[in-house]
Design brief:
The chain is built from 11 helices and 17 strands. It has 2 domains: about 1-270, LarA, N-terminal domain (Rossmann fold, 3-Layer(aba) Sandwich), CATH 3.40.50.11440; about 290-380, no CATH class. A hairpin with a 3-residue loop joins β9 (about 155) and β10. About 30% of the residues lie in helices and about 20% in strands. The chain has about 375 residues and is α/β, with parallel strands linked by helices. The chain is globular. Mean pLDDT is about 90; it is low at about 1-10.
């Protein structure tokens, strides 16, 4: 891997990442964009879409959502460069409100300040596109854009280990399509979605992401924003930072095979844009936590929101030693619809003897539900 600090101007180099380190996301974003000059030669009338990660209504400080200062930096840069047709587009995960996320995460203020529309893709129609054997419904607004700026987080995920540039495009499909992705396996659909939708620029938020789970709550200070043009390269870098090899993230090799991009390698160039910074590209590597409590979960086609809430609940219960007290597996996921079982979480397990309703049920509700079951099981074992 080649580490440089030289100024090469505004050339678009696919096999290169640009890193700004610090604690001022707005300034870091502006500096990165001036460094790489990504829209050089573009018509000022093009339609530009900015896609953050607003998976849920959680402030960026919790590690789940894109910092609004980064979005504000992008908008400021674009307006200063003469671009005016700009919109922020997003569809939060199943069970959460995008409009509420816009409000809680500070995006409504940005919209008012700069007169930039917020597009809730949950209200959008869709167009069907096919890649190989897979037909995917994609929100229509995406096809009205001339230039897509993807602004994901470098963060963990309970099902795919990480989420960054490739998986962030899942917010561009309708909720029923998100559910379908989980029923047919996430990895190939994510890769195929990226073969259909081209991201023109990526600015990955690594300020204080949650490196373990997508819903946040365990932020780690990484103090960086990473810019690039190749989502496969970006995600393989993110995997490295989060303590994995890129092959551990199953959709990355598939996306590479489908021609979406290339993973990080010996010839990848990493440029730290601030002269005073000279750390290597692997200066921060997260050590992933042991999650033995997942051994009591039987997951089958669960949507991210439902499964994430269960994992968060189990993590908290594990700290109290409660996860060792379950005599039966905890089942979750769409594949359990209509099936009988003992313990189920979510509406899809409504036929189970003991099930918690919700789509998704909240973390607190799951904690209470499972605590009561663990208490009942313990009483039975002492009789």
């Amino acid at each position: 891997m080649i580490i440089t600090q030289k100024d090469i101007g505004g050339d678009k180099i696919l096999n290169k990442l640009y890193i700004a380190q610090g604690d001022n996301p707005f300034k870091m974003t502006i500096d990165l964009l001036h460094k790489i000059n990504p829209l050089k030669g573009k018509d000022k009338d093009i339609a530009i879409g900015i896609k953050p990660n607003l998976v849920c209504a959680s402030p960026a400080s919790e590690g789940a959502t894109t910092h609004p200062e980064i979005i504000e930096g992008i908008i400021t840069y674009l307006l200063d460069e003469g671009f005016k047709d700009i919109k922020i587009i997003e569809g939060s995960w199943v069970g959460d409100s995008t409009k509420n996320a816009f409000k809680v995460c500070g995006y409504e203020e940005i919209s008012i300040k700069y007169n930039i529309p917020l597009i809730d893709l949950k209200d959008d129609s869709y167009i069907e596109k096919t890649h190989k054997d897979t037909c995917i419904k994609i929100c229509k607004t995406v096809f009205d854009l001339d230039y897509l700026i993807n602004v994901p987080l470098i963060k963990g995920h309970c099902q795919t280990k990480i989420t960054c540039a490739l998986k962030n495009l899942k917010g561009l499909i309708p909720d029923n399509e998100k559910r379908k992705f989980h029923t047919i396996g996430l990895y190939k659909p994510i890769a195929y979605l990226n073969a259909i939708i081209k991201q023109d620029l990526i600015l990955a938020d690594g300020i204080c992401p949650d490196p373990y789970f997508e819903e946040g709550g365990r932020p780690e200070r990484l103090n960086r924003i990473v810019a690039g043009f190749d989502p496969v390269l970006m995600d393989s870098y993110a995997a490295q930072v989060l303590g994995y090899k890129y092959n551990d993230i199953k959709y990355i090799p598939i996306a590479h095979h489908e021609g979406v991009g290339n993973p990080i390698g010996d010839d990848t160039e990493i440029e730290y844009i601030y002269d005073a910074i000279s750390q290597p590209a692997d200066d921060i590597v997260i050590v992933q936590k042991d999650k033995k409590y997942l051994n009591i979960v039987d997951e089958a086609d669960a949507c991210s929101a439902c499964y994430s809430n269960l994992v968060s609940a189990l993590e908290k219960l594990d700290e109290s030693g409660i996860t060792d007290k379950f005599a039966d597996q905890i089942c979750i996921g769409q594949a359990y619809k209509g099936y009988k079982g003992v313990i189920g979480v979510g509406n899809c397990t409504s036929s189970f003897d003991k099930f918690l309703p919700g789509c998704p049920p909240s973390v607190d509700a799951i904690i209470e539900f499972l605590s009561n079951i663990a208490g009942d099981d313990e009483k039975k074992s002492t009789r």
